[in-house]
Amino acid sequence: MITDVVIIGAGPAGIFTALEMIRKGSKQKIILLDKGASIENRRCPKAITKRCVDCKPHCHITTGFSGAGAFSDGKLSLSSEVGGDLPQLIGDTLAQETIDYTDKIYLEFGADEHIEGLENTEEVKEIRKRAIQAGLRLVDCPIRHMGTEKAHDIYLAIEKYLEANGVELLFHCECTNLILENDTCCGVYVMQNGKEFEIRAKRTVVATGRRGADWLERICAEHNIAHQPGTVDIGVRVEVRNEVMETVNRVLYESKLIGYPKPFKNKVRTFCQNPGGFVSQENYDAGLAVVNGHSYKELKSNNTNVAILCSHNFNSPFNQPIEYAKKVGELTNMLGAGHILVQRFGDILDGKRTWPKELAQSNIRPTLPDAVAGDITAAMPYRAMMNIINFIQAVDHVVPGFASIETLLYSPELKFYSNRVKMDEFFTTSIRGLHCLGDSSGWTRGLMMASVMGVLMGRRIALEEQQI
């Protein structure tokens, strides 16, 4: 097959590359491929089975059109301070301008016009004061909450728009390698229905998301694409009753807190807060089960969940941060017999495991029904565990009750975007004709910034087309 542009990965970065090319009048042929299914054919059977059945060949939650975004909580962070390090590459001004532009596209496809976190300034000041007293920083970030079910509808509308405008979508199609000739990327090798073939292209855009970060890391090493080990996030998903988070949920919707707790002073942050949400499970290759959280527009639980992530930066000679995080996850999965582990915070402080009977007697009932009560400290590295404990106790000063005995911690919560591809402001790598976008590139974290990177890539391709 021959095309002008081939995009690997149909997550937000890949989608918005194609979308912006169309909006800017590009006439180039685009092929967008993903190893998962189209969004209308993505189904997680857990809603019926009540437990993860480890779908083959790929998890429906993490692969397919819109990537993990289709089943995420659907929150768009509208501040350039949130979502990774892309502003370091393109500048704060352009990052914020493109966020505003991209947000309008989401609105065009049906996103809710309401923005969370803009009102109640006096109450925000009080929350910030308590955060400062606790040694934490509260990041101002307006949130547009699409909701898990609404995000699915929005991305379905985008999928149909791309199809109607000539983008060729290839599903259940896995990229196996790049085609390199004389230090130039000339396309990709792909596998579909057991058959391998080539897609030749003038430009290759890799946007494989967190799901494909380890694959891109291997590709970079194999072909000497300039990159460096970046940050890996290891943490837990915390769940409390809505009553504990009531003020923060109402005033901010999502409280983005950052701290550097003693004794290690690593960066620890909250991420992906879900008021009235549900803890969920995602499966990666080799059966690795990791925890996440969802928040629906209509369906609500009695709990709020939020990730607490500890950032690890490794130095020479170690250069395998993704594998390190996977080992932590694998060990935790082993203790839970392949399931997510859950433990009460008070039991961690008491140095004991949590038993199912204790969960049944608690005020907080787990929203992940097949999580296994146990001891996450038996698998979590000491440094990460101490950072998490001390951070939770600091957050308790901001949100009284957050560090209660019954607070639930689910493990492992891992974010695979540690490989940082070296690029210029046009996302050009050390290999001609190759661009890397989104979370797998190491430059973004989350829906909005990945979408922004796609918009800028699509705009650049369309502009160069007009200059020819």
Question: Overview of this structure, please?
Answer:
The protein has 468 residues and is an alpha+beta fold. The protein contains 13 helices and 21 strands. The strands form 5 sheets. It has an 8-stranded mixed sheet with strand order 4-12-13-16-11-19-17-18. A hairpin with a 2-residue loop joins strand 8 (184-192) and strand 9 (195-206). Helix 1 packs across helix 6, helix 1 runs parallel beside helix 13 (447-467) and helix 4 crosses helix 13 (447-467). The longest helix has 21 residues, at 447-467. The chain is globular.
Summarize the structure.
The mean pLDDT is 92.
What value does the Rg take, in angstroms? Answer: 21 Å
Major sheet characteristics: 8 strands, mixed
SS strand fraction: 25-35%
- Class derived from helix and strand content: alpha+beta
Average of per-residue pLDDT values: 92
How many beta strands in the DSSP annotation? 21
The helix fraction, in percent, is 25-40%
Which SSEs are present, and which pair or pack?
Layout: E1 2-8, H1 12-23, E2 30-33, H2 46-49, E3 75-77, H3 86-90, H4 92-108, H5 121-133, E4 136-139, E5 143-145, H6 148-164, E6 168-170, E7 173-181, E8 184-192, E9 195-206, H7 213-222, E10 227-229, E11 231-241, H8 242-251, E12 256-259, E13 268-274, E14 278-283, E15 289-294, E16 303-313, H9 321-335, E17 341-344, H10 345-350, H11 356-360, E18 372-373, H12 382-398, E19 408-415, E20 419-421, E21 434-436, H13 447-467
Helix pairs in contact: 1-6, 1-13, 4-13, 5-12
